[in-house]
């Protein structure tokens, strides 16, 4: 994995290799139990409030649903030690199930069984008390394998000690 920063611009690239019998289903001929993931990402911090980032990933061993990409615009950002701080974002996500196994920004979709999706997501975080973060996320899009509607609303409260 390589990461770097140059002023307001930041980016990175990574390669990951996985080997498991679970991966034989991602190849049409079921001859490989490997997953080879290549990814690149970059972002630009316009000022202390606005940040734009994007990423692309590909599994070179998968025959279907082998790419994932994301673009996200952030405003401000909640700081767990700063009561009253908040942040919001909007993002477009395309999460092929054979490359986006468990992306952190889509955890609520994965937990609800809504993986392999594309669509728009909005969310916000707020710090009501020091070291307490509340979060809400809404996703609206389509399933990649069936083109059926995919929608989810998720709320969470985190306590930091």
TrEMBL record:
<dbReference type="InterPro" id="IPR023614">
    <property type="entry name" value="Porin_dom_sf"/>
</dbReference>
<protein>
    <recommendedName>
        <fullName>Porin</fullName>
    </recommendedName>
</protein>
